Amino acid sequence: MNTAIANALAFKAKLKAEQQVIIEAFKEKPRAEVLLKDLCRCVDQNLSEIWKSFKFPKEVSLVAVGGYGRGELFPYSDVDVLILLATAPDKELKEKLESLVQVLWDIGLDIGHSIRTVDECMIEAAADITVKTALLEARLIAGSRNNFRDLKARYDEAMHPQQFFQAKLLELHQRHVKYEDTPYSLEPNCKESPGGLRDLQVILWVAKAAKLGDSWAELAARGLITATEAHQLKRNERAFKDIRIRLHIQAKRREDRLVFDLQNAIAATFGFETTESRRASEYLMQRYYWAAKAVTQLNTILLQNIEAVLFPLPHQAQAINERFNEVNGLIDIADEEVFEKKPSAMLEIFLLLSQHANLKGMTAKTLRALWHARNLIDAEFRHDIFNRAAFLQILQSPRGITHVLRSMNQTSILGRYLPNFRRIVGQMQHDLFHAYTVDQHILMVVRNLRRFTMTEHAHEYPFCSQLMANFNQPWVLYIAALFHDIAKGRNGDHSTLGMADARKFCYDHGISRDNTELVIFLVQQHLTMSQVAQKQDLSDPDVIQNFAKIVKDERHLTALYLLTVCDIRGTSPKVWNAWKGKLLEDLYKMTLRVLGGEAPSTDRELKNRQEEALKALRLVGIENDAHIKLWEQLDIVYFLRHDASDIAWQTRVLHDKINSPTPVVKCRLAPIGEGLQVTVYLRDQADLFARICNYFDGKNFGILDAKIHTTKDGYALDTFLVTEPAFASNYRDIITLIEHELAEVLAKQSPLTTPNQGRLSRLSRNFPLVPTVELRPDDKGQYFLLSISANDKNGLLYSVASVLAKYKINLHTAKIMTLGERVEDVFLVDGAALHNPKNQIQFESELLDALRI
């Protein structure tokens, strides 16, 4: 046998034996920190020994990076190393380095390696946040200490804590979207899922980069968290590390997911046993979910406090009422003991969040106080008529319900107010389609129902959006959603048991008899429609007739259909498909005909708008069929997003120009009585949105609203509401100017100009907002929803449009909202850059920079 091979095999056996001793010691006495450090020390020693045998030049260094650089090594984790050079290697050194890497693989290490000079490290770190993060925890193993010091000095000098924080926060949000923004999937990734190890590491990374501390104790010493919170974080971090170690050992490979196959085995290593009512794995997973929930809560507090240090804002409070203030867009308690003095404020604060669009969350101080006061919600609190009224008002709010309910669950307020809901927090569902715990599934169903009321989501399920637009009192559906699975895990039919809970809730909260009956019906029958649609023959008239007898009338049918769609969609991203959707829709339409109602092939609101538009067209002498060709090119989303007067006006000016080879620009005084309405119609072109915004920016026009639409045959039909003080006095001349100039600009496709740095208003300067960017795929995975929030200023929309253009992001629809001095914009977009995680983070970072200017 070749000597080199024999040596590698001997080294491999030695390394494996040493690692096994450490693992066996852990099995005897499980101490996560000890195992992680011992495995790291073992690999350090073996790498140093191999390094010495190669006799590399003295200026070469072997550096541990990533988790290995942090001094932690899980049983089957990658061993990430950097071979650091002073200068580019010659041929001889290259061959020697290749031999080293081969040996490291041969001895059984899962090596992740890079070979770079200090200059190359700095270039890569500047271009890639992953590399920058890995180098943050770099540690010298062997070789040149001077070379390593040079790297650390240059790295520290180049570190920009604010930019690093921003990039890591975007990366965190991107990762959370990947995991559906919940730690409560039934097979969570203990490393990557929200509330897991990676979230804890992000905190320590940004704190280390900002020189705020390297440990929970140091962060507590800086006042960023309390000593108790630091202890909780350390304890939960240790618990997650322990689980991950056991996963690796049990799977005999790198495995970070608590998959069903391993859950019971892992539970057994913790001493959990299966009982008559619950599996051992359920005890384990509920502990995991509660830990992840605590981490998520504490991370919110810590990130907010670190952001306040890195991006200081003037602390100027505006009173909301005697108990609460607004501080930089967050709600803040006016008194440290407000919840103790007035426990009902624990519901009031969530009601305020749903009522005030400018409030985006709670301050760290408020979150902490709410968390500690939650135990004050008792039977007396729940029987208080004012508290019951407040909770019902939350469900009846026109906005923010999903966010508020999730926040109430995260802070344990929801479970305290609804004790039966608390029983299902973190409760697993052992079936083939639910991907979330019961509580998260319920909140997902509520979210899905809410989306049917929001025009920016109308493209996802247009038929459901049509029905919801006509449904009276949609909050009744939210109550049904809250209770439809609340009795899961009890001994008995959860639909029947849930009816009793729902009935009591409705009675206690003074809900009308008709609405109470509907809620009870929906809880009892929430599985019926999917069972009929998927398991029975819809061509059999008796099947439809029997189902019609169950639902009795159109309101019950529509409510059950909407809840069923949302329930199926809320089980797992993989469960819903177009086939199921068609079955349910067919059942709905056939049953409606049996009930004697009108088959809703189009939404009544849609019909009303079209009829109103046609009446308006006839008043101005347009022929009866003049609208047909244009309307055939427009989908439901267009009609849902435009008023009847807009539809009539655009039809009047475009019906004879639908194939126009040149841009068509038409303006009129806006029907709302302020500003001009500008419609642009032309064959869609690259950067069109940016070009239009560029033109308005050059004219110093403020954009109050924009509706972007693309027709079926590829024409852009965009409408803008623009304003400028001079409009009132000479609007005719301005209309003529815009129609001529903008059409000319779009025909020439001139290069985009650099966005102007618009000035903030005095109010915005005194009450600045931290801009936010949120990017997530829509439910169909076809487009992305881009949401931005920032202080308003001239040229802001063009700045955003320029970034979209730079990254070749295609814009399909846009909802531009200006709320006083605040903008809340939602864009439906797609583009290749959005499917590359690194490019996506760069895009979001640049967008944030544009919003901060």
Description:
Keywords: Hydrolase, Magnesium, Multifunctional enzyme, Nucleotidyltransferase, Repeat, Transferase. Its EC number is 2.7.7.59, 3.1.4.-. With 853 residues, the chain is α+β, with helices and mostly antiparallel strands. The chain folds into four domains: 3-159, Beta Polymerase, domain 2 (2-Layer Sandwich); 164-310, Four Helix Bundle (Hemerythrin (Met), subunit A) (Up-down Bundle); 421-595, no CATH class; 621-852, ACT domain (Alpha-Beta Plaits, 2-Layer Sandwich). 56% of the residues lie in helices and 11% in strands. The chain is built from 39 helices and 15 strands. The strands form four sheets. It has a four-stranded mixed β-sheet with strand order 3-2-1-4, with helices on both faces. It has a four-stranded antiparallel β-sheet with strand order 8-9-11-10, with helices on both faces. A hairpin with a 6-residue loop joins strand 8 (664-669) and strand 9 (676-683). It is globular. The relative contact order is 0.05.
Features:
single chain; four-stranded antiparallel beta sheet; 39 helices; HD/PDEase_dom; about 55% helix; hydrolase; UTase/UR; four-stranded mixed beta sheet; Four Helix Bundle (Hemerythrin (Met), subunit A); globular; ACT-like_dom_sf; about 850 residues; 4 domains; Beta Polymerase, domain 2; alpha+beta
Summarize the structure.
By secondary structure, this protein is of the alpha+beta class. It is 56% helix and 11% strand.
